[in-house]
Amino acid sequence: MGPMASGSAFVRFWLTDKPRDTFLSSIAKEDLPSFRLACHDFGVRAAPLLFENTTITFRASSFTKPARMAALDRIGHTIKTLHFSMPHTSETFLPPLLDPVTGEEVNFIYEPYVPSINDSASRLSNPTYGSWEMTDLLVKQYSPLFHAAANIPSFIRAFSALTNLQRLQISCPGQEAGQRYRRSIVDYGLISIRIAVERSNLQYLDTLSLASIHPGAVLYLNPMMGFGARPNSLKRWKRITNLTICMDSIPFTPYPPTDHLKLLHSYLQVFASSLTDLVFRWKGVKGLSPLSLDKEVCLQDKSPAMACPRRCHLALQPLKFERLTTMEVENIVVDASQVSSFITAHRRSISEFNFEDTHLRSGTWDQALAPLTRISGSDKWKEKAEEVMDVPLLLSPAGIEGSKVNEVLLDYFNCKPRVFRPSIGAWQRVGAKSRELFWGTPEHMKTFLRTSILSWR
User: Which range has the worst mean pLDDT, 105-119, 144-158, 220-234, 349-363?
Assistant: First the structure.
């Protein structure tokens, strides 16, 4: 076949959508950047695969460098999943503002500044931080990272380029427990993200994931009580149907701090009318169930010594998700009565719920899941109950006498109590990778069976 014939054959192949897309999907992602450099059309066709999942680790020049913003304008429409990471580090710590003359601490009351669209010179004619004196003080004492995080117009421009964004993941790990009541640069970045999402045309955004966030983050992401919130801010967030939260744990104690728990309850209330899928995990030690905070005694305390005595008498409203179909909570402490109340309240919509690593503070699982009997009219759901116990993992007993292995197993099970956990729907999921890690490779399994106490041949 001559060069002209082979070239025309390739052109026909390349202009046929399905074969071309199949070919592009088979290219390793690390090879796609080099592939895009071959020609302009290669770059255009490969961009959706290369930038569909994009990660941004925020720095001072992330949204202000002209070259980066120009590149984002070109590829922004191909991004469907954005992972925004802004970890807590020594650079995000904000020291107190000091008066340069007296040395006294200066109070800074932050009010988000968003210049008018019709007035391009408003940012130059109006002070960014309330007054020219405060603006000058912040420019001199705070790092460029702070000013980049508080630069709301740059966030709006960046998110406006993501016209096909469907999933937004925000991650800000690394906050120390002693810094939970101090505002950092990360918090100003969260305010800018929230306002940018509200003021950008992200009509396909329906999934929000807050991965490894600190408890105070929900204050700055709350469209009802956050900084710079507007009357129509809530409308944008009510389009979110899938919400995943992994939050640094608030340790469960007889008198835990209630302010962050109230902020969490208020944040979940924002999505009460729209969520269909909800996943919540405490990172660290077990914490209270975020779905039943209205029933916690510590949040019903009417002591006047609380931080807000005017609001301490107001009880939290129960969370009622009108469209919730799938729910999963992990690493929590809860009462059986709280689980029962939640199932009863959502019996008309929920089809699957999952309690992972959950400790019942009072009651039993039979009591917690009693509404299932009333809803279904029978006890057939109990037929799917599973007996769960910790099993020691023996990767290879080769070379060990069977009597010794048997002795270890008997000692272990005699001293380890078994736990009964009802299983509803897809409670226990074991993927192929997990099975491989447990059983090992096929050859390893053959060795195990030949040398085990079961005497397989």
Answer: 105-119
For residue 353, pLDDT beyond 70: yes
Rounded to whole angstroms, the Cα distance separating 224 from 344 reads 28
Between CA 268 and CA 275 the distance in angstroms is 10
Q: Which of 411, 418, 409, 339 is nearest to 386 (CA)?
A: 418
Q: Given a cut of 50, is residue 415 above it in pLDDT?
A: no
Better-predicted residue by pLDDT, 149 or 300: 149
Residue 144 CA neighbour count, 13 Å, CB half:
8
CA-wise closest residue to 272 among 294, 240, 245: 240
pLDDT given for residue 231 in this prediction: 82
67-100 pLDDT per residue, tens: 999 999 988 999 999 999 999 999 999 999 998 8
Token pair for 228 = 């710079």
DSSP 127: -
Rounded Cα gap, residues 234 and 225, in angstroms: 10
Among residues 88, 133, 145, 146, which one has the least CA distance to residue 107?
A: 133
DSSP 306-352: SS-TTTTTSPPPPP--TT--EEEEESEEEEHHHHHHHHHHTTTT--E
User: Bridge partners of 388?
Assistant: 419
3-state secondary structure of 182: coil
Q: Determine the residue type at 369.
A: L
- pTM metric for this prediction: 0.77
Main-chain dihedrals φ then ψ at residue 139, nearest 5 degrees: -65, -35
Q: DSSP secondary-structure letter at 62?
A: T
Structure tokens that stand for 298 in this block = 């510590």
> Beta-carbon neighbour count of residue 54 at 10 Å?
18
Determine the pLDDT at residue 434. 42
Going by C-beta distance under 8 Å and a sequence separation of 6 or more, which residues neighbour residue 160? 196, 200, 201
Residue 17's CB: how many other CB atoms inside 10 A? 9
Tokens of 139: 């420019």
Contact status, residue 196 vs residue 162, Cβ threshold 8 Å: no
- Among the listed residues 294, 421, 284, the one whose alpha carbon sits nearest the alpha carbon of residue 364: 421
Amino acid sitting at position 161: A
Say whether 366 sits in a helix, a strand or coil: helix
- Alpha helices (H) in 117-151, listed in sequence order: 122-125, 132-141, 144-149
Which token pair is 68? 């980066």
CB 329 within 8 A of CB 280: yes
Beta strands in 133-241 (DSSP E): 167-171, 207-213
- Neighbouring-strand partners of residue 213: 247
Instruction: Please check whether residue 281 is in contact with residue 247, taking contact to mean a CB–CB distance below 8 angstroms.
Output: yes
| pLDDT, mean of residues 100-125 | 76
pLDDT per position as a tens digit, 17-59? 777 777 777 777 777 777 777 777 777 777 777 788 899 999 9
